[in-house]
Specification:
The protein has 626 residues and is an alpha/beta fold. It folds into 3 domains: 140 residues, Nuclear Transport Factor 2, Chain: A; 227 residues, FAD/NAD(P)-binding domain, CATH 3.50.50.60; 192 residues, FAD/NAD(P)-binding domain, CATH 3.50.50.60. 27% of the residues lie in helices and 25% in strands. It has 18 helices and 26 strands. Strands 8, 9, 10, 11, 12, 13, 14 and 26 form an 8-stranded mixed β-sheet that branches. Strands 1, 2, 3, 4, 5, 6 and 7 form a 7-stranded mixed β-sheet that branches. The chain has a 5-stranded parallel β-sheet with strand order 15-25-16-17-21, with helices on one face. A hairpin with a 3-residue loop joins strand 8 and strand 9. Helix 11 packs across helix 18. The longest helix has 19 residues. It is globular. The two termini are 44 Å apart. The protein binds flavin-adenine dinucleotide. Flavin-adenine dinucleotide (FAD) binds next to helix 5, helix 9 and helix 16. One of its GO terms (molecular function) is monooxygenase activity. InterPro entries: Auxin_biosynth/cation_transpt (IPR050982), FAD/NAD-bd_sf (IPR036188). This is Related to flavoprotein involved in K+ transport. Keywords: Oxidoreductase. Pfam families: Pyr_redox_3.
Length: 626
């Protein structure tokens, strides 16, 4: 499938060079042991509140670091997902938006203030606070990260390094969890074949079902459709040995915790069973074996009309909002088209079709080439080796490798083992990427620097490693939705001890009768080739016609690109209103993003349906200093 030329809209920024900033270093001397975190944070919050509510611009600006300050807002004040940088811009937008939102009741969250240390040269005072807005009437939450600044006279001044604010709920329309367990009210039907609903969600994987539950808890009518036959098939149809490579606490589903799992790293079946439990428990309405044949938006009625193919029957559906939740990287499997494919006599498949190594062995396979070097390639490689197959991994270029133990560390995503998921998400999802990315990278780099020998044997065996001092997890996730390898131990050992072969620094150029030929002219033979080469791309516009059918083109040309960060470090096209397509939502990501952004999307939809969500603030303010 050819890649279409589509506008780079909004323009993609380079996360590492344009968005990430070097972490600040402490300039003021503070007796951290003697610091009364609660009293100090409370004073700052009170001062911030007085300045904001009193519209005292100078006092408000004075709360922030001059250049290295950030404010990220998720719906609370801008009714959008925005990040602002620098004292003057932050003051300008806060003041302007506060005229509309009328913020009041800012109060520190009791017990939330604490000192956090990333290193000896970077410690900060951290606290949460709550506030209200009048228009719309809403309850919001915020978080401050405060750095001490040198003061000529007396103790250090505390300045805002980052401010994060987010909408917790509309006061008139609070989330009601009891609605989750009541049956969804019947869909409006006119005749046999026409349905109408407030929200149609395409895709009933974790993202789609969580969004449905959030909407249900807000009393919003919805329908989920999915091409699969059963809830959970988004996991069950994948390869048998799939397991997650993060802590279980990071993966919790809202409203319904996982049953106590024994070890970290949820298995495919645990993932499938949990999402089935979730859908059953909350009676989520899903129409299975259903795809979209055609889609159109009517500007006048501000509603969508879709033609569905349900099994073999056709139905039409009208809805006010359309949510696309069809998968994280969105596109179909990627397998390079190489000459000679017809001449290869072995088994040739993408990892999306791979089930297990036993099936290969039963078909007489004795040797296998695993193309790729990220998570799936390692899963497949290990299983093939365990099944007694002679296994070789082919690595095109260096792979970013992060040990799972780093992901379990409390300075990183392991924070979820110590705080409820909602607080973990506030810390990892609600803040500016410009700060959150480098902080997580710093924690990982520190751990990697403490064990420089960790991958020496792996490198000696020929596998090219980019370690955590050299690259960054968030950049991999935002720019590529993956491509990294989380080391859980066994795969690295198999390569380092040469139980599994490695061919590195080459790409396949063509098939031979018995294997592959590579860019260096060499060949490798194998009875099977498994392409663990990922998916076709991360911009959902490229595959939109496969999801929306006829009519997709009109939307494709107007909608935002997906994934990659924009000039503010906001992920493009996901979880928020698009600039040029109304009532249209793209929902993708990993498990923490499902949990956090399902609520973000549901609140926006509820707000629009009730007519209380203000226009998204889209200005790009500049100040005289810029
Ligand atoms: C091997 C692997 C390992 C992973 N490891 C981790 C990890 O360690 N930690 C982590 O947080 N995340 C991990 N992830 C990523 C992530 O959590 C999942 O990919 C995520 O759950 C995606 O959920 P989703 O609902 O967005 O998409 P999916 O699970 O892909 O669900 C999409 C649904 O949409 C349906 N659909 C698609 N197209 C159409 C269409 N045209 N019409 C109708 N229905 C359609 C599909 O049938 C499917 O049910 C991993 C993913 C994989 C594949």
């Amino acid at each position: 499938m050819a890649i279409m030329e589509l506008p780079d809209f909004p323009p993609k920024a380079d996360l590492l060079t344009e968005i990430y900033q070097p972490l600040p270093k402490l300039t003021a001397t503070v007796d951290w042991d003697a610091l009364d975190a609660s009293t100090t944070a409370e004073q700052v919050v009170r001062g911030f509140s007085t300045a904001l509510e009193g519209a005292d611009k100078n006092a408000l600006a004075d709360h922030f670091l001059a250049d290295q300050s950030y404010w990220r807002d998720t719906l609370a004040i801008t009714s959008h997902l925005r990040t602002f940088k620098g004292r003057d811009v932050i003051e300008l937008v806060l003041t302007e938006q506060n005229r509309q939102r009328r913020i009041h009741g800012i109060a520190i969250t009791p017990g939330s203030a604490q000192i956090v240390a990333a290193s000896e040269s970077l410690k900060w005072l951290d606290c949460f606070f709550t506030f209200k807005t009048t228009a719309p009437q809403a309850t919001c939450t915020g978080r401050l990260m405060l750095l001490p600044q040198v003061s000529e006279h007396g103790p250090a001044h505390w300045k805002v390094w980052t401010l994060s604010t987010w909408l917790s709920g509309f006061d008139m329309y609070p989330e009601d969890e009891s609605l989750l367990r009541t049956p969804s009210k019947p869909l409006q039907q006119s005749g046999e074949d026409h349905l109408s609903t407030d929200v149609l969600i395409i895709g009933g994987g974790n993202a789609g079902l969580l969004a449905a539950a959030r909407l249900k808890a807000l009393g919003v009518d919805y329908l989920v459709i999915d091409q699969n036959a059963n809830v959970g098939d988004n996991w069950s149809l994948r390869y048998d040995c799939l397991r997650f490579h993060v802590g279980n606490s990071f993966c919790e589903t809202p409203y319904l915790p996982y049953p106590q799992a024994t070890t970290n790293g949820l298995t495919r079946d645990e993932l499938a069973n949990q999402i089935k439990r979730f859908a059953d428990e909350f009676r989520i309405r899903v129409l299975h074996r259903t795809t979209v044949k055609a889609t159109a938006y009517d500007n006048e009625s501000r509603s969508w009309a879709l033609q569905l193919l349900c099994d073999k029957a056709e139905k039409t559906v009208s809805c006010k909002h359309l949510v696309l939740a069809t998968g994280v990287g969105f596109q179909g499997p990627y397998m390079p088209e190489l000459p000679g494919v017809g001449q290869y006599k072995g088994i040739n498949m993408h990892s999306a079709s791979y089930k297990n190594a036993r099936l290969l062995a039963e078909r007489g396979v004795k040797s296998v080439l695993v193309i790729g070097s990220a998570n799936t390639a390692f899963d497949v490689m290990e299983e093939c080796y365990d099944a007694g197959l002679r296994t070789t991994m082919v690595q095109r270029s260096p792979t970013y490798v992060i040990p799972m133990s780093y992901l379990l560390h409390p300075e990183g995503l392991g924070i979820y083992d110590y705080v409820p998921a909602e607080i973990g998400d506030a810390i990892t999802q609600a803040g500016p990427l410009a700060v959150g990315g480098p902080l997580l990278g710093h924690a990982h780099a520190k751990l990697a620097a403490a064990e420089p020998e960790r991958y020496v044997d792996l490198a000696k065996a020929g596998f090219q490693v980019t370690n955590c001092t050299q690259s960054d997890l968030v950049a991999h996730l935002v720019d590529r939705c993956g491509g990294h390898f989380v080391d859980i131990g066994t795969g690295v050992e198999l390569l380092a001890t040469k139980k599994v072969g490695i061919k590195s620094g080459v790409s396949p150029t063509s098939y031979t009768d018995s294997g592959l030929k590579f860019t260096d002219g060499s060949t490798l033979d194998a009875d099977a080739i498994i392409w663990c080469t990922g998916f076709r791309g991360i911009d959902i516009r490229q595959g939109l016609s496969g999801i929306l059918g006829d009519g997709a083109e009109a939307i494709q040309n107007k909608m935002d690109a997906t994934w990659g960060a924009d000039a503010e470090g906001e992920v493009r096209g996901l979880w928020k209103r698009h600039a040029n397509v109304d009532n249209f939502w793209i929902f993708g990501g990993g498990t923490a993003q499902h949990r956090w952004y399902s609520k973000v999307i549901a609140l926006q939809i509820k707000g629009i349906l009730e007519g209380i969500l203000p226009e998204a603030y889209r200005d790009v303010p500049t100040t005289s200093s810029q």
